[in-house]
């Protein structure tokens, strides 16, 4: 159960976090980001996502999504098998540029669509 004082992040607040993260990316990280970003959209997540009507997904790459966990206040990477549903709840408190750096530096990276 989510803390009673918690309220979901608004799209405008999320966009500010995205802009901040993008401003801190290297040129190569920014190029990767521009290949995988999508318009933020709420996706379902069954473990903790119901109270906030899901979590904001901000990028898709192959079978992975980058999404913002507004309970933990950080960006996360999870797999998905069905479009619109995040399969794994993660509790990373990463800033967006850290997630993109992780993807860029991963041996396999993430496939871009």
UniProtKB/TrEMBL annotation:
It comes from the Bacteria. This is Uncharacterized protein.
């Amino acid at each position: 159960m989510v803390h009673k004082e918690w309220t979901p992040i608004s799209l405008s607040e999320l966009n500010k976090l995205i802009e901040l993260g993008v401003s801190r990316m290297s040129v190569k990280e920014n190029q990767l980001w521009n290949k995988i970003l999508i318009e933020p959209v709420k996706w379902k997540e069954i473990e903790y996502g119901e109270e906030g009507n899901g979590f904001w997904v901000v990028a898709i790459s192959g079978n992975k999504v980058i999404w913002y966990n507004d309970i933990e206040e950080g960006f996360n990477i999870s797999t998905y098998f069905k479009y619109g549903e995040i399969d794994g709840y993660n509790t990373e408190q990463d800033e967006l540029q850290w997630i993109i750096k992780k993807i860029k530096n991963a041996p396999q990276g993430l496939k871009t669509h």
